[in-house]
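Justification of resources, computational component.

The compute hours requested in this renewal are based largely on the per-chain cost of generating structure records like the one below. Each record pairs the submitted sequence with a full structure-token output. That output is archived, and it is also reused by downstream analysis tasks.
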Amino acid sequence: MSLIILIVLSLIMVVMAITAVIHKKVAVAIIATGIVSLMASIMYLLMAAPDVAMTEAAIGSGLSTIIFFYVLNKIRKAK
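The structure output for this chain reads:
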């Protein structure tokens, strides 16, 4: 059962990574990269690495996404 979940999470990560690269809207790409990080943190949790999962969720999914949106907002205001 755990292997099936890991495969599904991996497929979601690949689709979101491709979406982040291909999509023309920057906001969609930022959200897609945040989802990739969130799926990675879930995978770490399933592989019995809760400390790495918490760090990935906090930094990779949370803080990085917020910083990207903050910078995007600053760039749009500067124009």
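The chain has a mean pLDDT of 94. The helical segments are 2-22, 26-46, 50-78.
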